[in-house]
Amino acid sequence: MQNYKEALDHKIFSIISLAAQKLSLESYVIGGFVRDHLLHRGNPKDIDVVAVGSGIELAKKVSEILPHKPKVQVFKNFGTAMLRAFNMEIEFVGARKESYLEDSRNPIVENGSLEDDQNRRDFTINALALSLNKENFGDLLDPFGGLQDLESEIIRTPLDPDITYSDDPLRMLRAIRFAAQLNFKIEKESLNAIRENRSRIKIISKERIVEELNKILLSNKPSIGFGLLHKTKLLKLILPELTALEGIDEIEGQRHKDNFWHTLEVVDNIAKNTDDLWLRWAALLHDIGKAPTKKFHKKIGWTFHGHEFVGAKMVFQLFKRMRLPLNDKMKFVQKMVLMSSRPIAIVDDHTTDSAVRRLIFDAGDNIENLMTLCEADITTKNPKRFNRYHNNFKIVRQKIKEVEERDHIRNFQPPVSGEEVMETFNLKPSREVGLIKDAIKEAILEGEIPNDYDAARDFMIKRGEKLGLKPVSSEQESE
């Protein structure tokens, strides 16, 4: 039996071992900590401890021994407890065996042995355990060949995958998520079982599904996970807006690109430049409006007119259905989808100052995110076109910098307020006030006047007079 005592050199493990001895319990570290140590994946902050007996009592005893006596959070319904020590979260559970009903992923739980507990684990690489017992401290318990699967970079279930995925369908998403995070292959029989059991995903809450999707999106190469979701036909059940983009139509010899696979390339591209989850969501959804807006015209070929506007509306519907946050995060994704073609249009417009001002005004503080998204959207395999597009965006970025430094348009507020317009012309809130404010904004964005108070006030007077309004004299104002 292999021994990995060096993995347990942190004093928390000797404390857990001592606490277990005092309670006459067997205890083991199991799951992610063991897996990640064997893969040399940094310093894990989460530790799962299984006790052959009461995990809750073991947690309480560990807290007693620790100098700072951390609070123990007890989750009686699950038979688990958690405490924080040494900047780590340690979860304790009693060894158990599980059985499932067809309409629920919540198991019927009974006390069990370590073997029972390893049997219930989702994958062989997560069933690896290290002993914390005095007589064999650090010994690896690997009943399903998890170590070999780690070396072979394989995701495999300990028991029959059909039963494993049917019992708890969330494991299908976890298999795909681990494949994406670790760049492992899902074993063939397991992959087939995911496809066969895909409809079982319907009993999983949207929140749990989104949790796994977020982890896939945050992986180094999200296309691995989304490609597997597509291959197993899970994606059509979860995000049909994406699978609707797949395929290439041809009419009269004119074709369009496959927008689904293009989308996955865009997500991979953006993953190289940002860890922002919501910007990655924007990349994933930036083209979803293309499926419902796709049309063929004999003279110009395939078009997707208004796909950004339609896509932004679809973002709200998707977020609501998936119970994603309907707050500023959703609005950010909508904004990125709505504006995703704007910088490209500016390139076509020879980067005029007025077009750049409008882009900065509309994007506000999100201008950098928008440019990052648009650059990720370049997926051409033609080196000359690829370089040309990127060089064009460099020009746009420089133009944005120059215009912003000169005109201060980002998060622009008109130099003249609505209150001042009303005071100047002795008006109450009215249509005329709005017309004058809009005219000042347009004049600044078009470069007719600079973005400063004196120029804006002079323009306000002239615009008011055009509307038949007369400014109140200073004497009248003082009265």
Please provide a written account of the structure.
The protein is an alpha+beta fold and 479 residues long. It has helices at residues 11-22, 32-38, 55-65, 114-119, 146-152, 161-167, 170-182, 188-196, 206-217, 222-231, 234-238, 240-243, 259-271, 277-285, 290-293, 307-322, 328-338, 342-348, 353-363, 367-376, 383-407, 418-425, 431-445, 453-466, 474-478, and strands at 26-30, 46-52, 73-75, 80-85, 88-94, 96-99, 108-111, 129-131, 140-141, 154-155, 185-186, 250-251, 254-255, 295-297, 301-303. Among the domains are: 5-152, 2-Layer Sandwich (Beta Polymerase, domain 2), CATH 3.30.460; 153-238, Hydrophobic Seed Protein (Orthogonal Bundle); 418-478, no CATH class. The strands form five sheets. A seven-stranded mixed β-sheet has the order 3-4-5-2-1-8-9. A two-stranded antiparallel ribbon has the order 6-7. Strands 10-11 form a two-stranded parallel sheet. Helix 13 crosses helix 20 and helix 18 packs across helix 21. The N and C termini lie far apart (96 Å). Residues 474-479 have low confidence and may be disordered.
What attributes characterize this protein structure?
25 helices, Hydrophobic Seed Protein, Beta Polymerase, domain 2, 479 residues
Shape: elongated
Compute the CA-based radius of gyration. Answer: 30 Å
Helicity, as a percent range: 40-55%
In CATH, what is the homologous superfamily of the domain at 5-152? Answer: Beta Polymerase, domain 2
Strand % is 5-15%
Oligomer: single chain
Strand order of the largest sheet: 3-4-5-2-1-8-9
Largest sheet: 7 strands, mixed
What are the low-pLDDT stretches, counting only 5+ consecutive residues below 50? Answer: 474-479
Rounded mean pLDDT score:
89
Look up the CATH topology of the domain at 5-152. Answer: Beta Polymerase, domain 2
- Kindly report how far apart the N and C termini lie: 96 Å
Secondary structure tally, helices: 25
Number of strands: 15
Query: Can you name the CATH architecture of the domain at 5-152?
Result: 2-Layer Sandwich
CATH class category label of the domain at 5-152: Alpha Beta
Structural class given helices, strands, pairing? alpha+beta
